[in-house]
Amino acid sequence: MIEAVGLTKRYGAKTAVYNLSFQVRPGAVTGFLGPNGSGKSTTMRMILGLDRPTEGRATIGGHEFRDLPNAPRQVGALLDAKAVHGGRSARSHLLSLAQLAGIPAARVDEVLGVVGLQQVASKRSKGFSLGMGQRLGIAAALLGDPQVLLFDEPVNGLDPEGILWVRNLMKMLASEGRTVFVSSHLMSEMALTADHLIVIGRGQLMADMSITDFISANSADFARVRVPDDGPEQREKLTATLTEAGGQVMSEPDGALRITGLRLPRISDLAHEADVRLWELSPHQASLEEAYMRMTQGAVDYRSTADQVAHLQAPPTPGYGPQQAFAPPQGAPEVPQQGWYAPPPPGRNPYTDAPAPAVPAAAPAAPAAPVAPPAPAPAAPAGPSADLTKSDISEDSR
Fold it and tell me: Is 60 helix (H, G, I), strand (E, B) or coil?
C-alpha cells in the first residue's frame, strides 16, 4: 500500500504540493488525475524517493522508498519512457537493470514477451518510436515482478491495440492483489481502467473516492427530450407543463430540451397529459470527463487564449474555404459547454431564439490591373561548357 501523509514540496517560493494525504490500496487500479502543473509527477517522484519532501512523508508498505530492501523487487515504476541510453538495445537495457537488482536474466526475455518487443530486442532504443519506448518502460517496471506499480502516462504514444493491452494489463495486475497507481490525462481511458480516483489541483487534494461516487458528486444527470421539429407550439406547451411540475428546462443547440428535477416516467406522463408527442426521451449520465472538467475548472493554471498574432495571417477569400463555413455569426448567443455545467434555476433560459444580426456583405473587390507578360528568358549559350563530361559525374550519381 502507498500512503502519503501531509506531503508538501516547495521549490523556492513555489509550492508544488501542499499537505497532501491519501492512500493507494492493493487490489484496485487507482487513477491519479489533475490538470497540468497540479503536482502529479512531483508526488510520484516523492513516493519513489527521487525528490525529498519539504514536509510530510510518503511510504510504501509502511517504509520510505530508500529504506526498502532491494526496492526493484518490491516497486516498479514508469515515470519517463525516455530515460534509456539510446545506444543500448532493449535487451541490454533490461539486462543491466536485472543485474543491478539480482534478477535472473531469464526474466528479461519474459518481460520482453509480455510487452511484445521480442522482435526488436536487439535494436538500439534510440530508434524506437514513442509507443515502443513506452512498452520498454513498462517492461522495466515489471522486471522485478513487484507488488507495487506506479505509471505516469503509460498509454502516451500507444496505438489503439496498445492502449487496450495496457488497460487489460492494469486490471490483471490489480486482480492479483497488487497496488496499481496510474496517472493519465485520457479521461475516457481512465473511466474504463480505474476503480478509484485521487484528484489533485494546484498541489492539493480535491477528491479521493470511487469513479461512480466522483461522477455522481460532480455532475447533474438529466433527461433529453425532443418533440417534432414542425411543432413549436408543442415545444412551448411541454416546457410550460414541465416547469409547472417543478422541472428545470433548458434548450440545447440542436433543438432538444434538457430536463432536470423530474424522473423519466414523470416526464412521459406529463407529456401524455399535455397531448405532446415525443420523438426522444432518453436519460443522460455525465461522463468522467464532464465530471472532471466541472470539478477542476477552477484549478487550471494553463488556459489557451485568442491568438495574438492572428492579424498577421492573410484574410480568407470571401465565400471560400473552411474559415467561412465554420465562422460563427457575429452577435450569436454564447452557448456553454454541454454535459458538465450546472443547470440554471427554474424560469431562466440561457438560450435565445433571436436571429443573429445580419453581416454586411463584403464590398466588391477592385478589378486587378493587367499584368504585362514576362520577358522571355535568354537562351543558354551553346558550347562545350553546357555539356557534362565524364569527369563531372561523381561516383555516387552513376
Answer: strand
Question: 355 is written with which cell numbers?
Answer: 436571429
Helices (H), 53-129: 90-101, 106-115
Neighbours of 297 (CB within 10 A): 14
pLDDT per residue as tens digits for the range 271-308:
999 999 998 999 887 788 888 888 888 777 777 666 55
One domain, residues 112 and 25: yes
- DSSP-derived 3-state class of residue 361: coil
Residue 213 sits at φ, ψ, to 5 deg, of -65, -35
The span from the CA of 61 to the CA of 74, in Å, is: 10
- Give the contacts of 29 (CB within 8 A, at least 6 positions apart): 170, 171, 174, 180, 182, 193, 194, 195, 196
Is residue 40 in some structural domain?
A: yes
333 within domain boundaries: no
Domain that holds residue 108: 2-217
Domain presence at residue 290: no
> Each residue of 56-112: pLDDT tens digit?
999 999 999 999 988 989 999 999 888 888 899 999 999 999 998 999 999 999 999
Of 188, 217, 246, the residue at which a domain comes to its end is 217
Q: Which helix (H) or strand (E) holds 7?
A: strand 2-11
Burial code (b: 16+ CB inside 10 Å, e: under 16) for 83-104 equals ebeeeeebbbbbbebbeeeebe
User: d(Cα 5, Cα 225) in Å, to the nearest integer?
Assistant: 48
Q: Which distant-in-sequence residues (6+ apart) come within 8 Å of 161 by Cβ?
A: none
Rounded to two decimals, the pTM is 0.68
Pair 30, 108 in one domain: yes
Query: Strand pairing of 248-251 and 14-24?
Result: unpaired
Q: Hunting for cell 433571436 — which residue is that?
A: 354
Neighbours of 216 (CB within 10 A): 15
